[in-house]
Every structure is written in structure tokens, then in C-alpha cells.
Amino acid sequence: MRGLFRFALPALLALSAAGQASPVLMISLDGLRPADIIEAEARGIAAPRLRALMREGAYADGVVGVLPSLTYPSHVTLLTGVAPAVHGIANNLSFDPLNHNQMGWTWYSQDIKVPTLWQAAHRAGLRTANVHWPVSVGAEGVDYNLPQIWRTGEPDDRKLLAALATPGLLPPLEAALGAYPLGIDESVDGDAARVRFAARLLAERKPDFMTVYLAGIDHVEHHDGPDSAAAKAAIARTDGLVGALIDAARAARPDTTIVIVSDHGFAPVTTDVNLFAPFIAAGLIQIGADGKPTDWLAEPWIAGGTAAIRLKHPDDAALVARVRALLETMRATPALGIDRVLDAAEIRAAGGPAEASFLIALKPGYETGTDPAAPPARPSVLRGMHGYSPDLPAMRATLIVAGPGVHRHGALGLVDMRAIAPSVARILGAPMPDAKIAPAF
To answer: Is residue 215 located within the same domain as residue 163?
Structure first.
């Protein structure tokens, strides 16, 4: 883990930093594995637009992501060029040990601790737009913002989004295009509707920098598993949506550079493991008569293939020792599928959650369950998962870039996810001093 980001990328360092600034359309395809496009024909996947973009520009053999390899931490790294330990978004869900926040996610950009590409572009005098990018509620530097947010999935969520979007932006769009999808809708159909809104923004507002997030591939891979027929169909349909966005962007601004990214890979999963029960049995989580937590000293902050262990009093040496001993016992329990346990120093070295005193890394095939009353292990409901250690090849993400801002064609090898934001910043002509990794394209 200490050497996670220490791989040589001489080809990347040779890329030119010169050139005139150009507009950028940055599209995230949640969960898209690089080989599903690089080897699309061999895998039986129809992806002509993404394949054509690869031939036109450059692509990574894989993007080495962040710890944990989850959607929200990864998308903030894609916007900032720094790891979760620095930017502050370390999980999809807020840490909520007493379940008071009703499954609240880290939707709010005010929790990002460093400047984003949106802010850098805005400071450079550029127009910016966003459709559904994670952690975009209240995002500074976004001129036209349709942020990602939901609560109940009921119609009131539409009112919530309308209140949080850029004032006056949504009503005329909905008058022309119909209802904007609920934020909780992660289907490919939901993506298709959002693409219509993004295409209209590209045509009417002509932003210099725009981010668009599509969730459908990830949604299907969780439900049916990577390599499933349903996942291949989702990729094929999403390829068409990407083509529509590319066409809209280039019609509005012919000099647009297209940047396709994903946030993580995917692994098949068969087993849910209950990491909460050992903490309850050890008296580290107190449960009331109604089955709800009433107090805690240490608790897993679950993240799919990993779980950060947070302590109520992290400076309490006796508590640290008590939790360490419990984790050693848990690691020796085969049913829990634990591959390794990282301590605080190892987590920091990997750029993982700064709030964690320990981190459990599960073996592929195992995922963190959500029910503290479940057995230690049981068959999983989902068929695919991520969140594992980013040094696993299955967790590698996708990068495809093409346009006048790109000065190298063909394969780029392995790319550090932290190099993507400074690369986009270079193309935009918008400096990002907090991003320390050299541009990748």
C-alpha cells in the first residue's frame, strides 16, 4: 500500500504542456472498466463511439484510483487532483454511527477541502456547467448547475433539486424537455434523460468546461454483475449517449476536448459479511431494545470492499489497543473474508480516509453488509461491487481523451487518477496549484 502510487509513468511526463486552451467536456461513466472498451469486440460489447474516440486520441490501459474505490471519493479526486485524505470526501455516505442522518450521502461541495476544477475554471474567467456530478450541491464556480441530490425518491425530491439548482435554470429546460429525472434514478433511462438536458445546455450556454455524470453502467453491474449480458447492454446503450454528448459539444464548440473518465472498476461478489456484529459483541457499539444504536466507541464505516474503522476517541491508547485486538481476531475468522487490516499510518500513506484509525480490506468476492443482525456471512443480494483497495487490477478505472488539447495519441499506460484534474486544468488554461501530480495528457 505504501507504494500504491509509486509507479513509473515516463510516457506521461513526455507529453507536451504547450498549446492553446480549449473547451473541455468531461463525462464520467460510473463503473466503466477500461478493458470493456479496449477489448470491446472480444468481449462482445458494442461501443463504436468510445472506440472511435480512443482511435482519435489517447487512452489509459487503466487508471489507478483512490482508497476507497468508491464513487464520491473518486469523483472528487477527478475534480481536485488529490487523494481523499486531502480533499476530505472519504466515503459515499456520511459517517452516522447513531443513524440520525437517514442514510445521508456526502452531497455537499462545501465539504471539499481544496479547490476544484470548477473553481479553477471560473477563476480563469471561463463559463462552467454541471449535470449530476457527485458532491456538486452548492458547488462554487459552477455557472449552470444541476447537482446530484435526493432524499426519499418521492416527488418532493423534484422541489429539492429545483431549489438547489442554479436559480432559473431548470424551469425553461423542463418546459422544453419534460421532467428532469429524480436524483435517485440511476438507470440508463435516467441517464438518457439527463443527456438531453446536458445537450441543451451545451447548445444554449456553450460552456468552456462542463461535467456530466452517468450512473447506469454502475447500477446494472451492481445488480447483475460485471460481464453480465445486462451490463454489456448498458455499456452499449451508454456508448450511444456519449456519442450524443460529443456531437452536441462539437456542434456548439468545434474545438472541444472530450475527456471520458470512470471512477473505479468492478469485481464479482458472492458474500455479504457482517462487520458490525463483532463490534456489538465487544461492547464497542451499544444497541437499544428497539435494535437501534444508542452509543458507540468504535464502528465500521462501510465502503463496499473496505470499511474504515472510526473511533470516538482516537487518541485513547487503551481504546486503540482494544480495537486492534478485535480486528486481529476478526482477520483470523475465515467467514469474514478479510484480506488485511491497515493501521492509521498505512491508511495515510495510501491517501485513504484521514478520520480512520484502521481500515479493513476485504478479499474480492466479499462485500460489507448493512444489517448488524445478519449472520457473519450470507449470500449477497448484489452481484458486483467496488470499494476495494485500488491496487487490485479489477478496480482500475477508464480514461479516454481526444481533441485539440491532447498532444499524444495511443496508449498512455497506467495513469494515476490524481493526474487527470491537472491535465484538464492545463487544457483549460486554469491553474490548480493544489494538484501536485504531473499532467497525464
So the answer is: yes
| Cα–Cα dist 97/107, whole Å | 18
Q: How many residues does the chain have?
A: 441
E strand or H helix at 343: strand 338-343
Q: What pLDDT does 350 receive?
A: 98
Residue 3 domain flag:
no
Amino acid identity, position 244:
A
Mean of the pLDDT values across residues 377-387?
Answer: 98
Closest of 402, 397, 388, 392 to residue 419, by C-alpha: 397
The CATH number given to whatever domain includes residue 356 is 3.30.1360
Predicted TM-score (pTM) of this structure: 0.95
Q: Are residues 234 and 166 in the same domain?
A: yes
Give the three cell numbers for residue 146. Answer: 444541476
Mean residue pLDDT of the chain comes to: 95
- DSSP β-ladder status, 377-379 and 271-273: antiparallel
3-class SS at 328?
Answer: helix
For the chain, the 3-state helix, strand and coil shares in percent, each to the nearest 5, are 35, 20, 45
Residues 6+ apart with CB under 8 A from 112: 76, 79, 80, 87, 88, 89, 135
Q: What's the CATH number where 166 sits?
A: 3.40.720.10
CA atoms within 13 A on the CB side of 130: 29
Q: Could you give the 3-state DSSP secondary structure of residue 84?
A: helix
Domain count of the fold of the chain: 2
